[in-house]
């Protein structure tokens, strides 16, 4: 299915100066790398001949596969990066990355296992990071909501330490500038320890100069790139600092920098625009709502101040990475010494509260117990585990039907917070909570409906829960909330529907609930804030024959053509994908799109879009070309 894609790599014409020479002791040495050679036979065995089911990532450079190496390589789980022979990252970048990463040794730099250049292959093998890339979590609101503020601070510190090592930890004569710092190049292991990766574009230079400058072609990724470097072609360590500042605000906001959203206003804006707009008067607006209640004000002030210094347009105002580490560690110290429910509660206390919830005959006492569990569940993850183990879910589920709205609210919010812990999701659903959540979604006040939708989108992030939630009747009230709810309600309903529609049976339910007209209306709103979400759901629905018909009936073509011309990169990709699907059942939609000038927009996407956008644009242009040939043949006949 469609997930947010990384903006395309920028490789601009070479700057008219020569690059700083690589120091002798860091030059590429085939002899020193021979011990790292891995035979292609071993790579093929580990990846099952590059089986697509083992593919865990990809982009313009090629693809990354998960593989299990043999005993000779200690049976390591590995990430195997196979560069495409016609990729942006050609042999020069391949060799560059090898010569650098083979010499890196740091906890926060991804570990190098080996490489393969047999039969003109360009393959680099790294340690496997179980929790994937940071941007993988930022793409999914639920996944990001599971990472607490304290954990986010620790991720920031880890990544900063990795970059500090590159800038100053490689010996007296060496400094490496990463040149492509972004959330997709920060990996997370099973303990959420940050690992900086991808050094194909990195440059090395002498450390013994106070202000190392490298004159080079401009390369990096749009939205993360230092404006000063983009304009001058002069690469400095401060360029990495700027990019890292962007990542810091991504982590704070829980969103990718190139996505647009409303921050409480009518207008859509990207993250850094919002940061600069609200920094002085309303900085809290960019905080991820999932962690807002967790953040100590002083910790937030310390964090946002150093993050904002990183993205200063003035190079002299940007801090060193060591200073960044110092300030974020200060924020972490403030945060972890905050007396609050963020510290795990004693198990005996939790068991006592759950006992009161289960066995009290007094509605007032049940309300108090539900309130206490709600607060405990908002805190430490250990609390969430202990509450569920103590058997609270069945009684909380029962209280969802309470005539007392406050009791109902506390019970629902407790379940919502308990669902943050992944292992609780299945228990909540199997304990029979879903009908009660749907009851609140149908009968509760608007705030209760919003929280019910948020709970359903949290629970529906697990594949096995989607069937149960859909068959219990969640989709019609979610569609109604998408149509008539507040902005928050619509957002939560859209994410829940997106998750649920991953299961084919739920797509039919959504279509029967007339979700398509509502999605098209949201997509057609001039200043709509749910365009991205609406397109994502429509992409899934367009895989069904019934979905194609429903979308076609809603005069979708003009709206889709408009998005292809003016939408964000991901929106353009999704709009083209939907257009391809509906054109497959009726060529009149293709004719209509042509008449609306889609060809020019597709040509622009073909030349300036993301890799995925270019592929989709090419596919639709081929359809148009075939149609033109058919029309010529028909005219001759």
UniProtKB/TrEMBL annotation:
Transmembrane stretches, start-end: none
Keywords, sorted A to Z: ATP-binding, Kinase, Nucleotide-binding, Repeat, Serine/threonine-protein kinase, Transferase, Ubl conjugation pathway
Keyword set includes Ribosomal protein: no
Domain Protein kinase: residue ranges: 50-332
GO cellular component: cytoplasm; nucleus
GO molecular function per UniProt: ATP binding; protein serine/threonine kinase activity; transmembrane receptor protein tyrosine kinase activity; ubiquitin protein ligase activity
Binding site for ATP: 81
Biological processes per GO annotation: protein ubiquitination
Pathway: Protein modification; protein ubiquitination
Pfam family, one: PK_Tyr_Ser-Thr
Catalytic function, reaction form: S-ubiquitinyl-[E2 ubiquitin-conjugating enzyme]-L-cysteine + [acceptor protein]-L-lysine = [E2 ubiquitin-conjugating enzyme]-L-cysteine + N(6)-ubiquitinyl-[acceptor protein]-L-lysine; L-threonyl-[protein] + ATP = O-phospho-L-threonyl-[protein] + ADP + H(+); L-seryl-[protein] + ATP = O-phospho-L-seryl-[protein] + ADP + H(+)
Gene3D superfamilies documented for this protein: Leucine-rich Repeat Variant (1.25.10.10), Phosphorylase Kinase, domain 1 (3.30.200.20), Transferase(Phosphotransferase) domain 1 (1.10.510.10)
Entry superkingdom: Eukaryota
Keyword Methyltransferase: no
Repeat region (ARM), residues: 391-433, 432-474
Function as written in the Swiss-Prot or TrEMBL entry: Functions as an E3 ubiquitin ligase.
Name of this chain's protein: Protein kinase domain-containing protein
């Amino acid at each position: 299915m469609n997930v947010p894609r990384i903006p395309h790599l920028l490789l601009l014409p070479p700057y008219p100066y020569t690059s700083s020479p690589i120091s002798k002791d860091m030059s590429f040495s085939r002899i020193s790398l021979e011990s790292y050679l891995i035979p292609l036979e071993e790579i093929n065995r580990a990846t099952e001949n590059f089986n697509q089911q083992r593919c865990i990532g990809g982009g313009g450079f090629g693809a990354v596969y998960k593989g299990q190496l043999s005993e000779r390589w200690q049976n390591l789980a590995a990430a195997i990066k196979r560069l495409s022979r016609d990729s942006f990252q050609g042999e020069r970048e391949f060799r560059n990355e090898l010569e650098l990463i083979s010499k890196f040794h740091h906890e926060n730099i991804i570990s190098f296992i080996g490489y393969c250049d047999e039969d003109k292959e360009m393959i680099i093998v790294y340690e496997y990071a179980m929790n994937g890339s940071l941007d993988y979590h930022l793409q999914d609101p639920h996944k990001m909501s599971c990472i607490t503020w304290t954990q986010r601070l620790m991720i920031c510190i880890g990544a900063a330490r990795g970059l500090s090592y590159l800038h100053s930890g490689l010996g007296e004569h060496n400094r490496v500038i990463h040149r492509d710092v972004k959330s997709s190049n920060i990996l997370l292991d099973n303990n959420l320890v940050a690992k900086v990766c991808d050094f194909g574009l990195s440059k090395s230079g002498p450390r013994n100069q106070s202000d190392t400058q490298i004159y080079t072609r401009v390369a990096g990724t749009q939205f993360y790139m230092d404006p000063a470097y983009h304009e001058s072609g002069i690469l400095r360590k401060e360029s990495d600092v700027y990019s890292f500042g962007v990542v810091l605000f991504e982590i704070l906001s829980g969103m990718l920098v190139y996505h647009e959203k409303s921050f409480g206003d009518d207008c859509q804006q990207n993250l850094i625009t919002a940061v600069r707009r609200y920094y002085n008067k309303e900085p809290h607006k960019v905080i991820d709502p999932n962690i807002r209640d967790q953040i100590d004000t002083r910790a937030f002030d310390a964090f946002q101040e150093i993050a904002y210094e990183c993205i200063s347009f003035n190079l002299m105002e940007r801090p060193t990475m060591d200073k960044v580490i110092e300030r974020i560690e200060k924020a972490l110290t403030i945060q972890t010494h905050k007396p609050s429910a963020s510290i795990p509660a004693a198990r005996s206390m939790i068991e006592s509260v759950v006992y009161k919830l289960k066995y009290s005959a007094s509605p007032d006492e049940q309300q108090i117990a539900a309130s206490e569990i709600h607060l405990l569940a908002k805190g430490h993850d250990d609390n969430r585990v202990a509450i569920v183990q103590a058997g609270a879910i069945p009684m909380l589920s029962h209280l969802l039907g309470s005539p007392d709205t406050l009791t109902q609210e506390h019970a629902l919010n407790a379940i919502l917070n308990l669902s943050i812990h992944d292992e609780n999701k299945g228990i909540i659903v199997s304990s029979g909570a879903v009908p009660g959540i749907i009851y609140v979604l149908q009968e509760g006040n608007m705030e209760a409906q919003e929280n019910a939708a948020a709970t359903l989108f949290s629970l529906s992030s697990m594949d096995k829960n989607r069937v149960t939630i859909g068959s219990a009747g969640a989709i019609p009230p979610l569609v109604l909330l998408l149509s008539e709810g507040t902005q928050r309600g619509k957002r939560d309903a859209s994410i829940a529907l997106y998750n649920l529609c991953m299961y084919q049976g739920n797509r039919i339910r959504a279509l029967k609930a007339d979700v398509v007209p509502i999605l098209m209306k949201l997509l057609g709103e001039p200043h709509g804030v749910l365009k991205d979400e609406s397109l994502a759901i429509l992409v899934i629905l367009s895989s069904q024959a019934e979905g194609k018909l429903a979308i076609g009936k809603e005069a979708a073509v003009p709206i889709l053509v408009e998005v292809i011309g003016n939408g964000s990169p991901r929106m353009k990709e999704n709009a083209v994908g939907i257009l391809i699907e509906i054109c497959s059942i009726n060529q009149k939609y293709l004719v209509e799109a042509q008449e609306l000038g889609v060809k020019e927009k597709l040509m622009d996407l073909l030349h300036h879009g993301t890799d995925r956008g270019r592929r989709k644009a090419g596919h639709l242009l081929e359809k148009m070309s075939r149609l033109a040939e058919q029309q010529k043949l028909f005219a001759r006949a």
